[in-house]
Design brief:
CATH architecture of the largest domain: Alpha-Beta Barrel
Number of domains: 2
Number of strands: 11
Shape: globular
CATH superfamily of the largest domain: Aldolase class I
Strand content: 15-25%
CATH class of the largest domain: Alpha Beta
Helix content: 25-40%
Strand order of the largest sheet: 5-1-2-6-7-8-9-10-11
Length: 290
């Protein structure tokens, strides 16, 4: 069983309870305008270029015959391997599930002492359901707490099977309006809402995650509709409000992609507190961040 990942983040404290190891799978069915991991969107391998690190040594040009013709690149990663300054990085690698599980087991002592565990994130775990299920089952055998960070856009039958082995779901709710959801993520939200109901009906623990994007999902109507959803969904323990940041803008440049939200200003603390208070007034247990 092999999967494609782009990062393994150890000692993570923002992807569920305690100290965790977060596995980022590559590939996502959505294309959110504010995505802070653009290298996670494509299912294919991608090259990131860091011009500030490049010393123009020419080694990449020597080993690769198509460096001047990007359209011919097959993402073999040889240029990244030979780069002595890490000016080129390959996002996306194949890995055996058993090999990854051995890596995850190394930090059991930290999981146990902090009531942490392993979080499968992305990209989108539901887009690699068999690999995700293999990892969850392996963790379960070792007594490791598991969380799945998902946008909820996947086959219900896959989610149903994964839910049998996941202890916690970090579930993204981005926009309640269907048309705006389609506009800003590239897909509607009917399936996302149905899958949330599925998890709730199976009495799963759920933390709702809401990216707070000024001018997109911070209006009174969306806040009211989201709060109503949370209140009427059994199993939701808390809402994590994730304020917008533009730290990923440089990642888009490295991938030679256009960043769509350069016009949005970073939200101030007072603004974030105000939005959080609006949710709390509607009976929602809100935590800012994490």
């Amino acid at each position: 069983m092999r999967g494609r990942i782009f990062n393994i983040q150890k000692y993570s404290i923002h992807d569920g309870p305690g100290i965790r190891t977060t596995v980022f799978l590559k590939g996502c069915p959505l294309n959110c305008s504010w995505c802070h991991n653009p290298e996670s969107q494509s299912f294919d391998k991608e090259l990131l270029f860091f011009p500030n690190r490049c010393i123009n040594c020419g080694e990449c040009m020597r080993i690769c015959k198509v460096m001047r013709k990007p359209e011919l690149c097959i993402k073999c990663g040889q240029c990244a391997e030979i780069c002595c300054t890490n000016a080129i990085e390959l996002a996306g690698k194949e890995i055996e599930a058993d090999e990854l599980l051995k890596e995850l087991e190394k930090d059991i002592i930290f999981y146990d002492s902090s009531k942490g565990g392993v979080t499968i994130s992305g990209g989108e775990p539901l887009s690699q359901p068999d690999f995700t299920l293999k990892l969850l089952k392996g963790c379960k055998r070792k007594g490791i707490h598991t969380a799945v960070d998902t946008c909820g856009f996947g086959k219900p039958e896959d989610l149903r099977e994964i839910a049998n082995f996941a202890d916690l779901f970090l579930y993204d709710i981005k926009l309640m309006d269907k048309e705006k959801h389609l506009q800003y993520t590239g897909a509607g939200n009917d399936l996302i809402m149905e899958n949330l109901k599925l998890l709730s009906s199976r009495s799963k623990r759920i933390w709702i995650r809401i990216p707070l994007i000024p001018g997109i999902n911070d209006d009174e109507g969306n806040i009211r509709a989201t709060a109503n959803l949370v209140r009427n969904t059994a199993g939701v323990e808390q809402v994590n409000l994730l304020p917008y940041h533009n730290a990923a803008a440089e990642k888009y440049n490295r991938l030679n992609k256009a960043y769509q939200l350069n016009h949005i200003k970073l939200p101030q603390k007072e603004y974030i507190d105000e939005i959080a208070e609006q949710y709390r007034k509607q009976g929602v247990n809100v935590i800012i961040g994490g």
